[in-house]
Amino acid sequence: MKKQTETITLEIEGMTCNGCATHIEKDMNATQGVLSSTVNHETGKGEFTFDADKMSEADVINAVNSVGDYSVVNNVDDEEVSAVNSKYKNQFDLIIIGGGSAAFSAAINAEGLGLTTLMVNAGLDFGGTCVNVGCVPSKNLIRAAETVHHATHSNFKGIKPKGADIDFAQIIKDKKALVAALQQQKYMDVVSDFENLTMLKGWAEFVNNNTIIVDGKDTYTATNVVIATGATTNIPNIEGLNEVGYLTNVSLFDLEEKPKSLTIMGAGYIGLEMAMAYNRLGVKVRIIEFTDRPLRSQTEDITDVLVEQMKSEGIEILPNFRAFKFEKEGNDTIIHCNCPDGSTTQIVEKGHIVVATGTTPNTSKLGLKKIDLKLSERGHIVVNEKMETNISNIYAAGDVTNTPPFVYTAATEGSTAVNNAFSLSKQSVDYASLPWVVFTDPQIAGAGMDEIEAEKAGIPFEISKLDLIHVPRALAAQDTRGFIKLIRNTKTDKLIGARVIAPEGGELIQQLSMAIKFGITVKDLAESFYPYLTLGEGIKLAAITFGKDVSKLSCCAS
Q: CA–CA separation, 487 vs 295, rounded Å?
């Protein structure tokens, strides 16, 4: 039987050079059902011939969207728009702008309430930052890097590691496969049988408080709107940076050829996680940070431990350096920097520049001036604890707002926004005991206040700090890097904050978060049972340290 073939021409966004076009062609030709691909980065178009018995036009579009940082423009065909118009007449109960964790959580809640919902997404594929270019790929690479580290380093004198054979391209391919699988399983499959949800790809812009226009063509109206457009890397305005080229988390994680080296601009948690992962995978890494130390949001005792570890692994850290000019010299990038002593220097980078200088909310293309939506000084949408904006029928959730930027807070906020938009019973989001983790090694984790925040709040407090050298689990593992720090209210004895820096320290923080949330006292923590030779026992010992010297206690003693 003769094969039925079809050809489709697509406009593709995100290509910057011929290498991009070649990348798309290569991946598409490896896609089952695609017979041939021709992509031109100058015209921004690609022509794809495919076996119509094996795939549809929509499958081709999805395949292109899954290749790197590229996306098909205006890929909603007339029939799809017609179907939407016919079924809903472009009127919905709810419009969700965005396609990440907050958006999907909002859509799930809306479906449960029986609301007709339109989700409009552009930029990153459905699933947003976390699954596509954030949490999932970064933690996968971090674990891969830890495997290499353990194969080359030992805490035990009697064990001599023999190293690891690294297939860098395979690591990235496996990462891509994981991302694709989770994007399908945890996002697209979850909503695949929703009866009241319509999903469109396109740029949404407000016409008025109730109406948006998508890609400048079709308008849609809803009773309420949830903005969940997320955030992207903040690119600093430095001379020559755009001309020399740079990577962000979006593009770095897709490089299948191991970089010669990396200079990472910024030492926040994103830059630090990148640095440790790629350094352990055999890439020479340098960090340029314009403040006095990495992870400036945390106290110095935490960052001192982390800096010592990173330097011991060969990562170069340049605090109080500020880049003011970039230029190319052959294949090298020259970075002109102001130094801490006021002089200037030139740094040569033979590999790639990676920008990790924080994030900026995705609000610039939404037409927010038309509706006078209130933004913060940094451009975030201002919301209250109910996810309400200054406009009664418009809510916002996730990284686009002035709330903590985590995927799990975004999910809670998206659901809360829909509930509050359509229910008389209002919900609030409370971040007082919010747990968080930085996935360096050792990991850094926190919940509640630290001592600086407690002092600013005028709360009477006391600190207990237990070095891991006093934790039997750490001694048995021959790995005593870090400490556990507890902050208690001296009037109530209740735990109000905790900070941990330890190998796998993130596994402790949920217990401490729950203790803060439910008003557990330090006395309760000290008198509870903990399994011996667990890292969790360190919490008990840290609680005891408020009143006793644990170095003078026997094992398991109270």
A: 20
The answer to whether 234 and 357 are in contact (CB under 8 A) is yes
User: Strand pairing of 322-329 and 218-227?
Assistant: unpaired
Report pTM.
Answer: 0.82
In eight-state DSSP terms, residue 353 is E
- Quick one: pLDDT at residue 86? 40
Low-confidence ranges of the chain (pLDDT < 50): 1, 75-88
CB 486 within 8 A of CB 447: no
Residue 146 Cα distances to 142, 281, 342, 419, angstroms: 6, 9, 38, 41
- Please give the order of strands across the beta sheet that includes 344-349: 322-329, 332-338, 344-349
Q: What is the pLDDT of residue 3?
A: 61
Torsion angle, alpha carbons of 481, 487, 493, 495, to 10: -80
Number of helices and strands (H, E) in the chain? 18, 25
Place of tokens 């820096």: 501
Contact in structure between 376 and 401 (CB atoms under 8 Å): no
Q: How far is CA 474 from CA 73, 155, 178, 302, 478, in A?
A: 53, 11, 32, 17, 6
DSSP code of 205?
A: E
Upper half-sphere CA count for residue 67 (Cβ side, 13 Å)? 28
Task: Report how far residue 217's alpha carbon sits from residue 232's, in angstroms, rounded to the nearest whole number.
Answer: 26
What angle do the packed helices 18-29 and 57-65 form, to 10 degrees? 130
* Closest by Cα among 526, 543, 553 to 472: 553
The neighbour count for residue 194, using CB atoms within 10 Å, is: 16
As a residue count, the chain comes to: 558
Q: Phi and psi for 214 in degrees, rounded to 5?
A: -105, 125
CA–CA separation, 249 vs 281, rounded Å?
16
Number of neighbours of residue 87 by Cβ within 10 angstroms: 10
Check: CB of residue 464 under 8 Å from CB of residue 485. yes
Give residue 185's identity as a one-letter amino acid code. Q
> CA of 195: how far to CAs of 58, 393, 449, in Å?
20, 24, 44
Look at the alpha carbons of 388, 393, 396, 400 in this order and tell me if their dihedral is positive or negative.
Answer: negative
Element (H, E) at 141: helix 135-152
CA quadruple 516, 517, 519, 523: dihedral sign: negative
The pLDDT, as a whole number, for residue 557 is: 61
pLDDT for 456 equals 96
| β-strand partners of 551 | none
